[in-house]
Amino acid sequence: MMTIVRYEILKVLRNKRFVFFTLILPLVFLVVLNAFVKPDSDQGQYITYLAVFCTLFGTAGSGLNTLSTRVSKEKSYIGSIYAVTPYSPGKFIFVTAFVQLLLNVLIAAVIIVFGLAVFHLNIDGMLLKMELLALYSSLYYIFIGLTLGFLLDVVSLQSISFPLYMGFMAMNLTKDLGLKLPDFMVHIQKFFPGYYLNKAVGTISIGGDAMRDIGMLTLNIVVLLVVTLFVYRYKRNTITG
Hints:
The structure is a single chain. The protein has helices spanning 2-13, 16-36, 43-73, 75-84, 89-119, 125-151, 154-170, 183-189, 193-205, 211-240. By secondary structure, it is mainly alpha-helical. The two termini are 24 Å apart.
């Protein structure tokens, strides 16, 4: 399995969409938010918070853009593999999610190093806890990427992936980032994991108990996993045919 994992990682790292959506855009976003949003709290703590959010930004791009397109492009290949090898759909989903998580760790590492070099980001246990939580939440976008890849063709995905990406990220720009938002948007954001991630990160930063928000985050992830499995079963004949 590790051979497959290494191959998949190298394949993704050569993808220009991966570099743009998951490495460059989050760093630009980090710089822009730091320049234009003035926090009420300590600046150092705010940079920590931004770094975690930008990890979410990058890992969401990895799932919504890179993964979805890759799965859609390789559907026929995946189907042929199922037909001639013991490589099962379950193993494919597991390996794909595992590869994406490893890539998401890379994204987090790049953001942390950039934050350290440019903004003197404080690397401590609290930051690591928050980053681990952001990586956990990235499972949501991994499952969305798989679902979109199973459902849509490459051309459609390339047309909608960026607007979809920006739409999802707008749902993650919560009041916890120091932004002023209308109440109706806050209510909509409660249907997305970024809302609970941001609340959990904020709670952790003050030493509080974030289990309720982590529980809601987990619920979002589980629901998307169920949807992914349902979509796969619905599209299975197309993929394996």
